[in-house]
Amino acid sequence: TAQRRQENLQAVPIAVSAMNTEFLKEHEVRSLQDLSGAVPGLVTTNSVGGGLAPLSIRGVGGVNGGANTFNDEPVAVYLDGVYIGRLSFSTSDLLDVESIQVLRGPQGTLFGRNATAGAVLVTSAAPTKNAEAMVQGSVTDLHEHKISAMASGPLISDMLLARVAFGYSKGKGYTRNTATGGRLNGSEATSVRGRLR
């Protein structure tokens, strides 16, 4: 959907990397930061403070070309067609995502002045006609805990379909404060998304 309509990837005159649900699961892509090694020309820096992680495509963007909380970024990020204007989305957990497309090169014609380096299109999973549900969790040796759940199906036979997803993650942080004994740079995030069709 790089040109705002469904097309065969071979027919799109744009440098596009498209990743579906299976790819994202197989490569354990949990945030946009995890795409650095999988998408040519895409670089995500480590957090530069405040949970912000600038994106750059083909060398345009990043800390030098953006990373200012009050400026527009040269890499536009869209979630279900809605522009996300701040950098914090690149460090957020991806919740119930159907596909991610990375468009390299200027995309100003279709995606506005914020897409001078390219665009990242994130599409969340749509409601399904058949009832389905999923729960998954993970624990790491770095004291990070994550859980996510999803339920989808019909609310009113074939007239109204719904999908709801929930995610929670908590990390204690890697640094210990020697004065208080507590940990620093920890994180905690809760996400909820609902869709009707």
Can you walk through the features of this model?
The structure is a single chain. The chain is built from three helices and 14 strands. The strands form four sheets. A five-stranded mixed beta sheet has the order 1-7-8-5-6. Strands 9-10-11-14 form a four-stranded antiparallel beta sheet, with no helix packed on it. β3 and β4 (60-61) form a beta hairpin. The two termini are 19 Å apart. The chain is mainly beta and 197 residues long.
Tally of alpha and pi helices? 3
Unreliable spans are: none
End-to-end Cα distance, whole Å, is: 19 Å
- What's the total count of β strands? 14
Strand content: 35-45%
The value of Rg in angstroms is 18 Å
Estimate percent helicity. under 10%
Mean pLDDT reading:
84
SSE class:
mainly beta
Secondary structure blueprint with pairings:
Layout (H helix, E strand, L loop, with lengths): L14 E6 H6 L15 E3 L10 E3 L2 E2 H4 L9 E5 L2 E3 L12 E8 L3 H4 L6 E7 L7 E8 L4 E13 L3 E12 L3 E2 L6 E2 L2 E10 L1
Parallel strand pairs: 5-8
Antiparallel strand pairs: 1-7, 2-3, 3-4, 5-6, 7-8, 9-10, 10-11, 11-14, 12-13
